[in-house]
Amino acid sequence: MSGTETQLPPYPDSISAVAFHPTNPDLLVTGSWDSNVYLHNLKQVSAAKKFKQRGAVLDVAWGNSETLVYAGGLGKEVKSIDLTSGTETVIARHEDAVKCVEYLADLDLVLSASWDSTLRLTSPSTPLSSTVIPLPGKVYSLALSPSKIVVAMADRAIWIFDIAALGEAVKAGTEGKEIQPWQKRESSLKFMTRAVKCMPGDEGYVTTSIEGRVAVEFFNSEASAQSKKYAFKCHRQVIEGVDTVYPVQGLAFNPVHGTFATGGGDCTVSLWDPTAKKRLRQFPKYPSPISALAFSADGQRLAVAFSEADEGGANGEKNGNGCIIRECGDECKPKAKA
Fold first, then answer.
1. How far is Cα 130 from Cα 128, in angstroms, rounded to an integer?
2. How high is the pLDDT of residue 243?
3. Sorting pLDDT into bands at 50, 70 and 90, what band is 50?
4. Which of 6, 23, 160, 222 is most enclosed, with most CB atoms within 10 A?
């Protein structure tokens, strides 16, 4: 039923990442600052399997089955986790914390981006043998589209890699330092990037910042396409006459409808139509600042992670850590044009 919400069991610490399985909307993995990866089967929300890691978990990603997950974090390593047997294997190591992990199914590669200013490409079949691409700064967020990889870094740097070209380079054994991005850009937002996600239709991507703003960007570099990009303010409140601005940490695209959700330090989640440039709705406030968002592959569920240690929390709204699953129904559909 649309709008129904189910809260998962409480977490002892902040949630850094949430990820639905690419095809099964009942399976959700999360990563937490308590150094655990959690597996939730939404058919039995009371029971979650935990997998202890070496340091806080900053990101999680599904592999090529319902039993394989990759995780990275302050342990400076990327591990594969067999969710059935519990077997864990270190497949990549970094010099600093691993901020982002993604699995690139087309090339059977695990991507890991780190505060050590590198992007590493690792085949699960040859662990600890990574192609290391130097980057100009510390990585804050990474996202995949059907044809591109978008890496958001310090100093507002955005690098975009073409997946097909990257695959050819890796296949040819090209050294990482020789691999160049398809495009190098500067963020349209003046302040530090918090999150980046790609449009499901492969037209472009969205970024959020610490300063209550969102930018909608397009891959096509022609002037006619670039003229369509825009940015807007959100997640702001007037408190006692003062305009209070919150970071926008949560970001997720609905894979079916192409709308996207943002979650802020103001403990709210808003849903946006990027084509109409309008907000569709804002959901009722959550207990603590939003730390991560994810839609299920069928677009029917939204996982909302909230964490009391995150920046924000208007009027002392710091009410624990947790994850709520919202049944979306048709509320994520763009409104029909009049």
1. 6
2. 80
3. very high
4. 160
What is the pairing mode between strands 204-209 and 183-186?
unpaired
8-state DSSP, 203: S
Q: What residues have CB less than 8 Å from 24, skipping those under 6 apart?
A: 66, 297
Q: Six-digit token pair at 132?
A: 């290391």
Cβ–Cβ under 8 Å, residues 104 and 84:
no
The partner residues of 186 in beta bridges, in order of sequence, read 157
> With contact defined as beta carbons under 8 Å apart, do 110 and 101 qualify?
yes
From 88, 87, 142, select the one nearest 120 (Cα to Cα).
Answer: 142
Q: What is the DSSP string of 157-186?
A: EEEEEEHHHHHHHHHTT--GGG---SEEEE
Distance (Å, rounded) from C-alpha 284 to C-alpha 210? Answer: 22
pLDDT tier for residue 118 given thresholds of 50, 70 and 90: very high
Render pLDDT for 80-106 as a digit per residue (tens, 0 to 9): 999 999 999 999 999 999 999 999 999
What is the per-residue pLDDT across 321-335, written as a single tens digit (0 to 9) for each? 999 999 998 899 998
Asked if 67 and 49 touch (Cβ cutoff 8 Å), the reply is no
Adjacent-strand bridge partners of 12? none
Torsion angle of the four alpha carbons 246, 247, 250, 251, in this order, in degrees rounded to the nearest 10 = 100
**How far is the CA of 274 from the CAs of 17, 60, 82, 263, 303, in angstroms?**
24, 27, 37, 16, 20
Q: Locate 219 and state its tokens.
A: 């891959």
